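Task card 7
Instruction: Convert sequence to C-alpha cells.
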Amino acid sequence: MFWKIIGIVALIWIALAVIGALIKGLFPILVIGAVVFGLYMLYKAISGSDHKDLTKI
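Output:
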C-alpha cells in the first residue's frame, strides 16, 4: 500500500512537471499570437475598406 501511494504521488508530480513545461513553453507563442491578432483587428477597424464587419477575418 505504501508503494502504491508513493507511485501515485510520483505520477502526479511528473504530470504536473510536464504540464508546467508545456505551459511555460507555449505561453510566449500565445502572447505573440494575441498581439498579432489584435494588431490585425486594429488595422481592419482603422482601414477605410467597405467591409466594417470585424467578425469576418
